[in-house]
Amino acid sequence: MRVLAVTSVGGACGIANYAEMAMDAVRAADPTIQTQCSAEALDPRWVWTTTFAPFPDVIWLNYHRGLHSRWTLDEVAQLQQAGRKVVITFHDTYGESAPDALTQALHDLADAFIVHEPCVGLDKQILIRQGVPPYHGYMEYDYRLTNWRPVLGTAGFNFPWKNFDRLAEVTAEAGWAYVVYSNNATEADRERWTSANPYTQVFTGFLPTSVIVAGLAGCDATAFPYECANSGTSGAIRLGIAARKPVLAFSGCRQMRDLVLPAAGGPGAMPDPRITRCANFTHLHEYLQVLHIQRVDAGIVALATRDSWVNQGKKYAEVFRRVLA
244: closest CA among 204, 270, 274? Predict the structure, then answer.
């Protein structure tokens, strides 16, 4: 079987990183599946004008509204009419709300429609939560630089709604050191965070996932106090889960919906107890005062195992096999 992944590729891009990890996991799950990731294919004309030997059996749209704007319903239908199967992973969901026209139309047309959170109104949806990277050990921080404080880590692009500034202040107030892994953090950011908390270490650049996970695993806990109503689910928090230490997150951020609700996500659903849910920074500060420091958090280990890329790769491979059956 040949799968063409239509996706951004390389660089500081979460969609590209997701595609790389997903296709690696698919090949590990089923070596008979050959995959090719192509940014050129974001223009559907490239698919028709490129000579394949043989033509891909499955076209996988690693779908983001901005990146895949040229992929119209007609483009999908033409491939299906030519005997190809189209699988869509739709990242831009608002699962608690009725789907908009584009979401519904793509869902109805696709041979398989994958989402990362439970979505109302999409009867064909296949729920595959974002994968958790593997654990490859941990970094040991020099406690002479942290003055023997516990260490709180976080990671992700430095956007205002991720509250890296406020987290620097709260860790200082709570007596914690602070570690940030951020591709786009600047020297001015580093100076500002260090001014708020002198026991701060910042690692910049688009580092390998394994390096970030090891860095967070060397912390005593991780936190993702996001305040936003963005679509989809958070990829950055998976780095904290992969680190296998206690994970704190804001319950009001809809990008955490898949983690604070069980898979059903229906009325009366209870939050996943493995994530420490904080309502605000006051609440987060209180948790830091009583958080139990441990080598690994058993609940987070279970969560990392459930959503591991090993398991998610098997689910993807099964979807690809099923649409061809």
Answer: 274
Distances (CA, A) of 68 to 89, 102, 116: 12, 12, 18
Peptide bond preceding 273 in cis form (omega within 30 of 0) = no
Indicate the pLDDT class of residue 262, thresholds 50, 70 and 90: low
Q: Rounded to whole angstroms, how far apart are CA atoms 25 and 208? A: 16
Instruction: Determine the pLDDT at residue 81.
Output: 94
**128-159 pLDDT, tens per residue?**
999 999 998 899 888 877 888 999 999 999 99
Asked if 294 and 172 sit in the same domain, the reply is: yes
The contacts of residue 168 (CB under 8 Å, 6+ apart) are 178, 192, 193, 194, 196, 197, 200
Does 207 score more than 70 pLDDT? yes
Cβ(240)–Cβ(222) below 8 Å: yes
The parent domain of residue 151 ranges over: 143-306
What contacts 199, CB < 8 A, 6 or more positions away? Answer: 145, 146, 147, 149, 171, 172, 176, 177, 178
* Domain assignment of residue 188, yes or no: yes
Residues near 23 by Cβ (< 8 Å), separated by ≥ 6? 3, 5, 35, 37
276 and 152 share one domain: yes
Number of domain units in the chain: 2
Element (H, E) at 319: helix 309-324
CA distance 154 to 309: 21
153, 219 contact by CB (below 8 A):
yes
For residue 207, how many other CB atoms are within 10 A of its CB?
16
Distance CA 141, CA 130 (A): 29
Residue 245 lies in a domain: yes
Residues 74 and 159 in one domain: no
Sequence-ordered strand ranges (E) for 210-275: 221-224, 247-250
Specify if 138 maps to a domain.
no
The CATH number for 111's domain is: 3.40.50.2000
* Residue 136 counted as domain residue: no
Q: Which of 197, 219, 199 is nearest to 147 (CA)?
A: 199
